[in-house]
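> example.struct
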């Protein structure tokens, strides 16, 4: 099939490359000529393991091309996939101006029947609104499809080529057949549904996963008080097939370009139809508080006095294997520390440039590796679970720190890693690993079932 993908951000680029890998002829379009130049010279403007190699192989096989010429790409394609950004507006709603602009450009370029697919995450009803816009600008026939995307940064290629399911929202049998045909090589689990339900599936899925994370983070917070271990609790829960083990890792809360934006957007969507999504509002609130638990632990250790301390931070990306820092907990944590007179030293294997672009270069000492960051610090906070950090020898780490204080925001280290060290170690929801805390646990009141 001949496919045009509009937008070469994460979703667009990965989808374009993967559709080419399936044997289709794909042309990826972006207004940003700088990005197109990078792509045409064999580079990749984002960090995603394996993407560069796959893109190169498909370019060499003449199945993949990059251009800024949207009308040309539309004319030569049967399927047009919209994958432009829908970033949040200050009130949490999705900004649809880019997608509307792209839809109008597509309408004006059309030269025959097309299937117009929306892969960007958009509020329920947006596909219909875009169809109306296009219909007013063209005499040609077209069908609309909602094709929500579920890929995760860092494992985007695997998620695209081996998805758990494909959701196709459509109101035309012809478009439904074409889309099923296109995705058949990927999975048998193809759900064909109406357009509004497909739009909702995306928000509901992300909101549910975010809920799992906030749930386990609250359980972790309780574990810290009652002397239970959240990793054991999550494992025990996860064996129940109705619960499942995924997205039950306690930490410093979710970040990234999807969960924070989509949870807030779904609260807004519900609000527009006079529904107060109380549960999801709590999920967002818990997530916001969770990142500050790192600070609370530092304050406890330093007797409330952060001013003048040196704190090392390992990890700036919102999760490992990505250079993405959008809504990364590290942003707010570091900002708080700097504003409270803490000297911050920080390092991330790949996300330092993006972090500096958002945060600025001032106020933080940027370091080249894990040990250099820790050198002379009064405490170390691990915020992203990069392998590079997990591999550090803790005895060596202890020898370079000014004080052996380690706040592990991602539960990277285990009891055996700490053997032979004197770390004051705080993780998330595992109080028994905190130095000396086992003995201090309070006796719990006997609570009768009421
Ligand atoms: C997410 C969805 O998984 C994907 O389906 C959707 O299309 C886009 O949003 P992504 O943002 O790339 O993908 O990352 P993901 O791996 O889902 O992690 C999101 C955040 O949750 C990260 O900050 C991660 O650290 C955190 N997380 C995840 C936890 O804190 N605990 C977990 O158990 C899982």
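> example.seq
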């Amino acid at each position: 099939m001949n496919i045009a993908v509009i937008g070469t951000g994460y979703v667009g680029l990965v989808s374009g490359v993967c559709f080419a890998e399936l044997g289709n002829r794909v042309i990826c379009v972006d207004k940003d000529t700088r990005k197109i130049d990078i792509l045409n010279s064999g580079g990749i403007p984002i960090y995603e393991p394996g993407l560069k190699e796959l893109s190169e192989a498909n370019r060499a096989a003449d199945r993949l091309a990059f251009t800024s010429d949207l009308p040309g790409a539309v004319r030569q394609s049967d399927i047009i996939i919209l994958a432009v950004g829908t970033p949040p507006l200050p009130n949490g709603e999705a900004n649809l101006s880019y997608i509307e602009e792209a839809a109008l450009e597509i309408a004006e370029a059309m030269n025959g029947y097309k299937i117009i697919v929306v892969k960007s995450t958009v509020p329920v009803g947006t596909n219909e609104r875009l169809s109306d816009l296009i219909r007013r600008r063209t005499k040609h026939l077209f069908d609309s499809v909602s094709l929500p995307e579920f890929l995760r940064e860092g494992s985007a290629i695997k998620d695209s080529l081996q998805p758990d399911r494909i959701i196709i929202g459509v109101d035309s049998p012809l478009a439904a057949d074409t889309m099923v045909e296109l995705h058949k090589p990927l999975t048998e689990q193809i759900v064909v549904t109406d357009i509004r339900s497909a739009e909702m599936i995306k928000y509901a899925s992300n909101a549910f996963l975010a809920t799992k994370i906030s749930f386990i983070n609250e359980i972790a917070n309780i574990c810290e008080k009652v002397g239970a271990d959240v990793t054991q609790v999550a494992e025990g829960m996860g064996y129940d097939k109705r619960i499942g083990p995924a997205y039950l890792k306690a930490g410093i809360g979710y970040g990234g370009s999807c969960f924070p934006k989509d949870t807030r957007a779904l609260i807004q969507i519900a609000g527009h139809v006079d529904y107060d999504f109380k549960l999801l509002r709590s999920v967002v609130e818990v997530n916001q508080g969770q990142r500050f638990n790192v600070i609370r632990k530092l304050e406890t250790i330093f007797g409330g006095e952060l001013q003048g301390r040196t704190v090392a931070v390992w990890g700036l990306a919102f999760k490992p294997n990505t250079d993405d820092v959008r809504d990364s907990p590290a942003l707010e944590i570091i900002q708080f520390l700097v504003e409270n007179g803490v000297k911050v030293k920080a390092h991330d294997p790949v996300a330092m440039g993006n972090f500096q672009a958002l945060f600025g270069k001032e106020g933080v000492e940027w370091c080249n590796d894990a040990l250099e960051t820790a050198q002379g610090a009064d405490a170390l906070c691990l915020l992203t679970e990069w392998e590079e950090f997990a591999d550090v020898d803790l005895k060596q780490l202890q020898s370079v720190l000014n004080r052996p204080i380690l706040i592990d925001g991602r539960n990277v280290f285990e009891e055996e890693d700490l053997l032979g060290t004197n770390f004051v170690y705080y993780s998330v929801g595992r109080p028994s690993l905190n130095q000396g805390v086992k003995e201090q646990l309070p006796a719990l009141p006997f609570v009768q079932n009421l």
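> remarks
The CA atoms of residues 165 and 187 lie 7 Å apart.
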